[in-house]
Design goal:
The chain is α/β, with parallel strands linked by helices. It is built from eleven helices and twelve strands. This is Peptidase M50.
């Protein structure tokens, strides 16, 4: 699976290497699935003519080979994303399989579909030689492992192609709807609802159907489908929410920008008051600039109010300015949408930002997180009423 998200290496697990420059991690949750595989398959793979530990050792080998298959799947995602011009943050193998994180800010329906489909295709590609080798090798243990891995890759590949998020097939559906409607959010919502349907179908098929037919069913045969369905439902729900937010933030950046008045920090407060009055807009933000004309802080009315009237002509604006972080100026393309601004502010943890044109460096306006929340909240409310 693939997901666009920021990187935080403290929580990803054990780093085991890199693939095409992207770090590869084994999450701390992965041993859970390894233990489960050994516990479930160990007894079934045991043989009376071998030691008591034989079946468990074969199951451990299967867990290791399955980990390799997961990493091949995720590496395919990563290489495709990089080939399409996206930076890849990390590859992680975890209890649910794995995921690849890449920057999809400027993605397209075609790229989304390509990055998604190569993962399952890599599993199907692995299944073929594994099956061929498993049917020809003479070593019985090797043959057993190869055939198990072949079946596992076949199932993983086909399952991931099912048309619902968070599966790769859901990404393909999302890309298709995005292509047809021109709305990325619509694709996420549609594929998310299909993902919920897949979750329900998983439980009904693997647990409900045997029970309805009166077949005996072990606890594991109930718990495992329910766990998978929970994972699917959770991912699908997140996709639906993300789709709604994506639609709400797909408009132009100007929808949240507020006007600014740029003033040199060396100007006196008396000059500032005169120029602000001349601007004729109470909602205009007063932004102080350095000697090079670059914004660095916001006028603080409370601090200015403490300056005696007689000192206004000799007190510089810089004395009553609240300095902002060095990265509070966000450069965006003229056609950038609100999603890109939200992402930049989120990554930098900015409650307020000045937006400039990335080409001309012209200041376009100022935005606050509060203003974004208001605009996006109103858009989401309209969607719920529609």
């Amino acid at each position: 699976m693939t997901s666009p998200a920021p990187d935080d290496s403290r929580h990803h697990g054990w780093r085991i290497g890199t693939i095409a420059g992207s770090p590869v991690y084994i999450a701390r949750s992965w041993p859970v699935i390894a233990v489960l595989i050994i516990a479930v398959f160990g007894p079934a793979l045991g043989r009376s003519d071998r030691s008591a530990s034989y079946g468990y050792l074969v199951a451990a080998g299967y867990a290791g080979l399955l980990l390799g298959s997961v990493l091949v799947h995720e590496a395919a995602h990563a290489l495709a994303a990089r080939a399409r011009g996206h930076s890849v943050g990390r590859i992680v193998a975890d209890v649910w399989g794995g995921h690849t994180v890449y920057d999809a800010t400027r993605s397209s329906p075609g790229t989304t579909a390509i990055v998604a489909v190569v993962g399952p295709l890599s599993n199907l590609a692995l299944a073929v030689p594994a099956w061929a080798a498993g049917t020809t090798v003479t070593n019985e243990t090797a043959a057993t492992l190869l055939l198990i891995v072949a079946r596992a890759n076949l199932l993983v590949g086909l399952f991931n192609l099912l048309p619902g998020l968070p599966l790769d097939g859901g990404q393909i559906v999302s890309a298709l709807v995005w292509r047809v409607t021109g709305r990325k959010g619509a694709g996420l919502v549609a594929a998310g609802w299909l993902g919920r349907a897949m979750a329900v179908a998983t439980v009904l098929w693997f647990a409900g159907l045997p029970l309805l037919e009166g077949e005996g069913i072990a606890l594991f045969q109930i718990v495992w489908p329910v766990a998978i369905a929970f994972f699917l439902w959770q991912g699908a729900t997140q996709a639906i929410r993300a789709g709604a937010i994506t639609d709400a933030t797909s408009g132009p950046v100007e929808s949240v920008l507020e006007p600014v008045l740029l003033l040199p920090a060396s100007d006196s407060l008396a000059d500032v008051h005169r120029r602000a009055a001349g601007a004729g807009a109470e909602s205009t933000w007063l932004v102080a600039t350095d000697d090079g004309g670059w914004p660095f802080g916001l006028f603080d009315p409370a601090a200015a109010g403490e300056v005696p009237p007689g000192a206004a002509a000799t007190t510089p604006l810089g004395a009553v300015v609240t300095s902002q972080p060095a990265d509070w100026v966000v450069s965006l393309a003229p056609d950038a949408v609100l999603t890109e601004l939200v992402r930049a502010m989120s990554e930098r943890n900015l409650p307020v930002a000045v937006v400039v044109d990335e080409t001309t460096r012209r200041v376009r306006g100022l935005v606050t997180a509060e203003r974004i929340n208001t605009v996006v909240g109103s858009a989401l409310a309209r969607r719920r009423r529609a």
